[in-house]
Each structure stands twice: as structure tokens, then as C-alpha cells.
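Input sequence (204 aa), recorded before submission:
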Amino acid sequence: MPTSDIRTQVATAMKAVENKKAEDVSLLQLPSESSTFTDYFLICSGNNPRQVQAIADEVDERLSKDLGVEPNAREGYTTAEWILLDYVHFVVHIFNAQRRAYYDLERLWKSADRLTMDELLKGKKPAAAAKEAAPAVKKPARKTAKKAVGTRAAARQGARGTKTKGRKPTGKPVAKKSVKKAVKKAAKKTVKKTAKKATKKSRA
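Predicted structure, C-alpha cell format:
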């Protein structure tokens, strides 16, 4: 897909979250070593479950109606603590305040560039990032990649699997060699719990 089309989709999602009064909206362009995962994170917060769901619905509707784009997966809608909309080239994360503070994706993705709407549409890097670009290249990518693994595993756990079940990634990532295994184990445990609760509710 052309880069300009991806940027247009991200901009549409950004306008959608702002239309629903989302708080603390943050757009991250992920570093090049994460490009096989996704290109952008759009992160925002809602004050309550109803608003979190309303933001997700608005993003879904605007991208679907305006651009004919559907999410590859939707996770966490039922609990509305952390809704993840996976559009392959970008992922929309809609949190409540507690989950936003706990996972702190911006801190975990320090190597990502923060973009404004204008920078996104023009394909420009932030001025601060441009200044630091030269010395950053000299640093080994391994450290950044280690930090990325934890969030990637948590954010993507189950995202490619089911589209409608209210699964949410869990597990506090840590920058160790065993992070991938630890996060996956924690995520599987939580997914099983969520699935059992959902089954009990549907039977009741």
C-alpha cells in the first residue's frame, strides 16, 4: 500500500478519536526495526467504558465509511479497558486511565517519533528527532529491539487470531532475554480467564 494512503488512514483515525473527545492523543511512528510489525501507534484515553467504546466505534465507522478500510482485528471491546484496533500498517490503542498508566506505551517505545497531524500528512519527522538522527544511527539496535519485544507481544497477542472476542493483551513487559516467553505466558493465562468469563456470561 502507498505510504500516502497509510498516512491518510491514520489521519482519519486521529480525527475520529478527537471527534469523540479522546484525551491525551499521541501518535507514534515506530522505528525502522519494528516496521515488520506495524508503522504507527495511535494512542488515546477515554474517561469511562462507554466513551472508550464510543471512540473505537467512531474510528471503525469513519475508516469503513470514508475509506472502505476494515480492522484486521478488534480486541478488548467488551471490557473497554484497552481496545486495540489492528489495521496492519497502524494500530489504534484506546485505554481507560488506569490501563494507560500501567502499560505506558510511550515510555516503552522511547525510540518512536511523536508526530503531529501536520507532520504525519507531510511525511516529515519531528524537528527534535531530525537533530538526533545522526548519533542515533551509531547506537546498536539490539537494546531498542529488546524494549520493543515486550509491548509488541502484549499488543499483538491474539490480534491476528479472533476479531470479535473481548481479549486484551496483558503482562508487564521487562527488557530481558526471557521477556517474550514471560509475556506470552501471562497473556495466554489472561486470555483463558477472559474466555471462561465470557462463556459463563453467555450461558447465564
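Checked by second reader. The longest strand covers residues 23-29.
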